């Protein structure tokens, strides 16, 4: 049977790894220091030779379970830190279960080694472990809690619209040239291109009519048909048909179709009655 490796997502694996690292460092240092204290106690008070192995075993029996319990509480704090009001009961219940299981470990060891009875062992470890939860919270709050970056005051006033370009790059046969936008008379769709008429000269530009419309000043040009965009100043006469459609005659004499849909846009330029 081949072994299968289970990989956690990075956003989940990194906090768990950091939780275990912090727990190992803090509790490892605490257990070593307390073992050293026990050795000093053996020499000074009990007047016996110092025994690090015995001291370490005694301390680890009492506190070693928190090497595992602490990361669990860290994960619980991270999960419920933003939901205190909604899920406080669930959070307290989970922490209580962790404390109960942690307390059961040294109590069971005392029963198996006949060191103490269950009631005495419980009275010794339960108050200590409840206090440990407060210390674990302080460690998480100082070192592991994700800080919320204060929102800086940002000016949300709309930025001024960019100035429309003064020229367009167009094609004339095999050549390209720049034409002045203020000289354009009208623009018509022509397949994948648009045809731009400027003072009687015709040019092509690879773009859609909508793209060109966005480049032109909205105050100067108006759409009269899905395929035609004209300069308002060039409009000389509008002829309507019974169907609602019509034609637009430009000052240069060109006649362009006008659709009923876009005819309504011309009403904006009628004087108020």
From TrEMBL:
Chain segments annotated as transmembrane: 25-44, 56-77, 89-109, 121-140
Claim: S-adenosyl-L-methionine is one of the keywords in the record: no
Superkingdom per UniProt: Bacteria
InterPro entries named among the record's database cross-references: LytR-like, LytTR_DNA-bd_dom
Tagged with keyword Transmembrane: yes
Keyword line: Membrane, Transmembrane, Transmembrane helix, Two-component regulatory system
Disordered as annotated region, ranges: 240-273
Bias (Basic residues) ranges: 259-273
Sequence ranges assigned to domain HTH LytTR-type in this UniProt record: 168-268
UniProt name for this protein: LytR/AlgR family response regulator transcription factor
Native source species: Steroidobacter flavus
């Amino acid at each position: 049977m081949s072994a299968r490796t289970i990989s956690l997502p990075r956003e989940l694996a990194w906090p768990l790894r950091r939780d275990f690292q912090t727990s190992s460092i803090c509790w490892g240092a605490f257990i070593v220091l307390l073992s050293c204290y026990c050795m000093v106690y053996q020499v000074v008070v009990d007047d016996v030779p110092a025994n690090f192995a015995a001291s370490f075993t005694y301390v680890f029996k009492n506190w070693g379970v928190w090497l595992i319990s602490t990361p669990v509480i860290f994960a619980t704090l991270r999960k419920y830190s933003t939901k205190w009001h909604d899920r406080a009961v669930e959070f307290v219940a989970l922490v209580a279960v962790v404390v109960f299981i942690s307390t059961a470990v040294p109590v069971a060891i005392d029963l198996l080694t006949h060191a103490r009875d269950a009631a005495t062992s419980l009275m010794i470890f339960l108050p200590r472990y409840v206090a440990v939860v407060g210390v674990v919270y302080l460690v998480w709050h100082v070192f592991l809690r994700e800080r919320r970056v204060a929102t800086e005051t940002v000016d949300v006033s709309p930025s001024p619209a960019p100035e429309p370009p003064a020229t367009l790059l167009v094609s004339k046969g095999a050549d390209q040239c720049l034409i002045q936008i203020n000289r354009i008379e009208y623009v018509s769709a022509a397949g994948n291109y648009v045809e731009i008429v400027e003072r009687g000269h015709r040019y092509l530009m690879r773009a859609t009519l909508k793209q060109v419309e966005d480049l032109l000043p909205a105050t100067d040009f108006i759409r009269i048909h899905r395929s035609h965009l004209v300069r308002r100043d060039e409009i000389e006469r509008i002829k309507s048909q019974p169907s609602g459609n019509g034609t637009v005659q430009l000052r240069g004499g060109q006649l362009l179709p006008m659709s009923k849909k876009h005819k309504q846009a011309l009403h904006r330029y009628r004087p108020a009655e």
